[in-house]
Write a structure and sequence with these properties.
The protein is an alpha/beta fold. Helix content is 49%, strand content 11%. The chain has a 7-stranded parallel beta sheet. Strand 2 and strand 3 form a beta hairpin. The structure holds coproporphyrinogen III. Coproporphyrinogen III is lined by residues 24-29, 38, 44, 71, 73, 75-77, 89, 94-95, 142, 158, 205, 207, 318.
Length: 343
């Protein structure tokens, strides 16, 4: 039994006494206690792959920030690794795949991963976290959308253009679909296993949605996201596709409960297009660089745009690492106070 189930009730479209709030990337470098623990370890992967440590940093923001949900500490790139493509997390630079997908043979070599066998450390981290949370708040599970995972597997690292990945969609669409098929099958099994391990809601991150033309997005992304939503009927699913403002009416047709908005979108425009879905978002993470008074004003404006119901307050993308945690607290407290008064 959950002591605080605001997030789940809002996701299901039920009325709540105030708007729930959490932050994408809340576990991590904004918190001094995270940096202290991280500094004692060999690297990011040790943290991700040690369930007790992953559980500890998952719960840190619940203690420090009093958010209404925990998100399991992991990364979307554990999926390509489970399929056979190892990643490294290079200090101050980000992810790197020493080998990438270039040919049909490379796609052939990728396996549809078995969650217990290849991602057991994440599932164990979820179990340990659930035990330690003891029902304080819901736990969010997550995975990358197949297109975003393909983008990293083909490109090998972050990129402004992901031109190798986008090239594949034009040059070898059938091969792209073969790889997307394997990623989708892995992701469905993985998210189902997360739910079985205790995740109360799951989020699909399509971080690189916005670099595709709309027609390609429909062909190479939405249809696989739809399959994933369909395969997880037990818990609410949130779809967050950064930059895909043109896909919002398509998302309204998905069998998901919640649609995440980035800060380029205005909730007043989106709301009439999405029927009874819940919306999540979408304060610009840069708004948290202002003074506390500016943070309060921007947060209230955002809450006015969404209205009091069917909203989960969040940022429009992950919190930036150099954000002052005190301003994050102002954001969270403002959501709690102001949204209660909106009712
Ligand atoms: O608090 C949480 O949200 C849970 C943890 C989480 C991480 N990554 C930890 C992490 C989540 C949900 C992710 C998702 C993720 N990872 C996405 C989708 C969300 C988004 O931002 O669009 C993507 C694209 C990645 C891939 C990735 N991982 C990149 C590009 C980087 C380097 C840049 C960066 O943001 O740090 C990472 C590394 C990473 N993932 C860190 C953390 C805490 C930093 C590593 C460190 O502490 O050294």
């Amino acid at each position: 039994m959950l002591k605080n189930d605001l997030l789940l009730r809002a996701a299901r479209g039920e009325e709540t006494e105030r708007t729930p709030v959490w932050l994408m990337r809340q576990a991590g470098r904004i918190l001094p206690e995270y940096r202290a623990l991280r500094g004692r370890l060999s690297g990011f992967k040790e943290l991700v792959e040690t369930p007790e440590l992953a559980a500890e940093v998952t719960i840190q923001p619940v203690d420090a920030l009093d958010v209404d949900a925990a998100i399991i500490f992991s990364d979307i790139l554990v999926v390509p690794e489970a399929m056979g493509l190892t990643y490294e997390m290079v200090e101050a630079r980000g992810p790197l795949f020493p080998e990438t997908i270039k040919t049909a043979h490379d796609v052939e070599r990728m396996r549809v991963a078995d969650p217990e066998e290849h991602l057991g450390y994440v599932l164990e981290a979820i179990r340990v976290t659930k035990q330690a949370l003891n029902g304080r708040v819901p736990l969010i599970g997550f995975a990358g959308a197949p297109w975003t995972i393909l983008a990293y597997m083909v490109e090998g690292h972050g990129s402004k253009t992901f031109s190798k990945a986008r090239r594949l969609l034009y040059a070898e669409p059938a091969l792209a679909h073969q790889l997307l098929r394997k990623i989708t099958d892995t992701t469905i099994a993985y998210l189902r296993a997360q739910v079985e391990a205790g995740a109360n809601i799951v989020q699909v991150f399509d971080s690189w949605a916005g670099i595709l033309p709309p027609a390609h997005y429909q062909e190479f992304s939405t249809r696989y996201i739809a399959e994933i939503c369909q395969a997880i009927p037990e818990v609410p699913v949130t779809v967050f596709a950064k930059g895909a403002f043109w896909a919002v009416e398509e998302f309204a047709q998905l069998p998901c409960r919640t649609i995440g908005l980035d800060w380029n979108q205005d909730a007043r425009t989106v709301r009439p297009l999405v029927g009874n879905k819940t919306l999540q978002g979408n304060l610009d993470p840069c708004a948290l660089y202002g003074t506390p008074e500016q943070v309060r004003t921007a947060t209230k404006q955002m809450l006015d745009q969404f209205g009091p119901h069917r909203h989960i307050a969040n940022l429009g993308h992950g919190v930036y690492p150099d954000t002052n945690p005190d301003n994050v607290k102002v954001f969270i407290e403002t959501v709690k106070e102001y949204s209660a008064r909106q009712r």
